[in-house]
Amino acid sequence: MKTGCQTPHLNETDQLQVYFAIMIVTIGNFEAGDLTGWKEKQFKGKTTYALGQVDGKRALMAKSSASASGLYKLVDIALDKTPYLNWSWRVNNTLRGLDELTKAGDDYPARVYVIFQNGGMFRRSRFLTYVWSSDQPINSSWQSAYTRHSIVIAVQSKNTNVGQWVIQKRNIRDDYRRYFSEDARFANGIALMTDTDNSKQSAIAYYGNIFLSGR
User: Fold this and answer.
1) How far is CA 32 from CA 4, 15, 55, in A?
2) Which of 42, 101, 121, 196 is most buried, with most CB under 10 Å away?
3) Can you give the pTM of this predicted structure?
4) Which domains are assigned to the chain?
């Protein structure tokens, strides 16, 4: 991504902060090989997460084969100051023959969750779940087949952009208001998951840096 002019040795996040005086909170600095604060949550089987290279870029690689586990990082997010979630991702493939509105089809080559804790770690939390959908059209949304506390939003769809890096940006405070009909002043963490346990298929995805910004 270009920002008009560039300073040597600064990554995309730093470029934005220098040239546009945007408040930036880095959540995942995978380009620097930093996994500090990220923990694993296993549901069924084990998705492999490791730092790797693709297209000349260092990133977090996720490889799933009939598995469902994720990484999460708990951090207080002040939505009045940094409501925008920014990330990049790349998938090698989507999944075949799924109905993602059902439990049997609840698999995604790439997901990014925003966690809103409500007195518990995961069981009582609410989630905004941004997915690379294999089945639903872009900009569609639905309630998770597993819990009414999670709203799934397709920000990429099917094979469009497969094999390419895609940059995403969402106003998570606005999304929370839209889907939960309430305001939220804080979020409490970010999670990533590439999972194929229901479909018994395989997927490989890459996650670039993740950061929050004021605009």
Assistant:
1) 23, 15, 16
2) 196
3) 0.88
4) 27-213 (2.60.120)
